[in-house]
Amino acid sequence: MNESKTPLLVANFKANQTWPDLEDWIDKVSPVAEKFEGTVIISPSAPFIAAASQKLKSLNSQIKLASQDISRFEGGAYTGEYSAAQITGLVTYAIIGHSERRRNFAENDKILAQKVENAKKAKITPIFCVENSEIAISQGIEIVAYEPTFAIGTGTPDTPQNAQAVSQKLKAKGDFIILYGGSVTIANCRDYLIKNILEGLLIGSGSLDPNNFITILNSASN
Ligand code: PGA
User: Fold this and answer.
1) CA angle 175, 98, 96 (to 5 degrees)
2) Is 41 in the pocket of ligand 1 (CB under 6 A)?
3) Residue 183 near ligand 1, beta carbon < 6 Å
4) How many whole angstroms from 39 Cα to the centroid of ligand 1?
5) Dihedral, 9, 10, 13, 14 alpha carbons, nearest 10
6) Is residue 3 scored above 70 in pLDDT?
7) CA quadruple 213, 217, 64, 174: dihedral positive or negative?
């Protein structure tokens, strides 16, 4: 098992940033991440994973890498895909089942279970996203991100009270670390960090500006 130190802060960059943007982000955030008691994870677009891994190594950075997805296939003739085995050693984590993938790429429970299995075989820890506590959670999951779809990219986060209630329902299903995601900002980030209940954040647009992210990092430290 990958021993992730909490709180876990995951910056999901989606299809944003050029390589110079990402380099600048890493240069700015790395020295701050150094002093953080939890884990900082960045999830850049797939073409930047190898270069980001190299850069983080050269800086001796504490920041860990996650892929935004992983192929359901183990490898072979699947143009455009990248397999879990191909990014072993480059990433520590993989986001699996993000609602944008479920919705835009028709990913269902069966496909997600295959992705989780491939990630585990490649020693990559899945960060499994669910929009509520009823969604099926694949076998072998340690980290679950509760991300209600109404809150993603909308500026309308869930209430901390409801997020906490959902987290408790999820925890009744397994010994998961639960993260909250959906319109997390500098102003509200602390409300979603509740020891042993909500132990991390998955941050999209609020993570893109490195200075913004540093402020979130500092808030999560206090
Ligand atoms: P958001 O995205 O912070 O921009 O709402 C969160 C996510 O999709 O992971």
Assistant:
1) 60
2) no
3) yes
4) 18
5) -150
6) yes
7) negative
